[in-house]
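Crash report, auto-generated. Payload:
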Amino acid sequence: MKKETILATVFGVLLGLIVAVILILVLRPSGKQKIEKTDSKLTPKISKSSNIIPLEIKEPGDRKISEENTIKISGKVKKGSLIIIESPVSQEVLTNKQESFNVDFPLARGENLITVRAYVDRTQTIPQIKTLKVYYLSE
Amino acid sequence: MKLKHLFLTLLVFVFIFANSVIGQDSNKELEDIQQFKDKLASKVAELQKKEDKAQAGFLLEIKSKSLKIETSDKEELLVELDELLTKYYSVSTSTLNEITKEKLEIGDYIIVTGPLNGKVISANNIYLDENFTSGSGIVNDTGQGDFSLSIVTLENETITIDIESSSKRKILNIKTLELEDVGFSKIKSGDVVHFFYKKLNNKEEKRYSATKILVIPQEYFSK
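Recovered output after restart:
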């Protein structure tokens, strides 16, 4: 191969590389553009003013064993909800003036299936539901 | 002769002394064993107290050293039994009665307490109990005089709930928000009903006998 041919090939490859680097640098989006892109509105934002408070039971935990024949049920749900707490042997109805609520609830010996239903809106017949099992097994 | 007498006395003395030393040793050993037993018992009691959760399910299999149960979430758990430690009780409203393992039958609903490791429970106590399940929905039909309610559940399934004379029936007073007793005739289509029933196995059925219902009149929701 002639010396000129080798020189021309090397020169061509170098030129190609330079053009590629320039194109990458020029066409690559800047950091600001990247941030704008990630700020897309595809993911819905949760605004602080949102009024959705899902029913939450703080205590007792599911499958808990209780030493006493009553248990404190506490939780949180939208203010003014109609809360109905039921087990096969007992029931309590309350409306919460605050978001949080708590009730002393009687237990039967053995397994106690406790269902907490909160009707947060009078136009909604579908309640928010939490179900838990509490065991009272003392002799 | 004198030497022989002395030798015999010495032998007797050594024998008595050795016995008392051995006796002391065995007494000390017994005390140590008792202390160890006490420590073990208090540790077991402590662990049992810490392990304050229980598992429950329908009995699928009974073997000499283990049981298999299926929870209401259709999860299978292996229950390891200990001949000495595991105790068995039947649950009644007023008390617990100790029973033997032989009283357990396939399909029984049992509660198991003890350490849970993955899907294996080392059973401390086993309680023979009844399973109650709850549900809710909207009354679709109040039946043809057969004291049954057709209910569309939250899962959009239609099931039938039989109201027995023994079923506890309550209705929400929409003015006072207090619960009152209610007769079957007061329940109407469109009312919301919460119900409890006894489940005899882990299969889903389309008809249950209610032990308890609570009615929220549809008027509560139309304000």
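Post-recovery validation: The mean pLDDT of chain A is 85.
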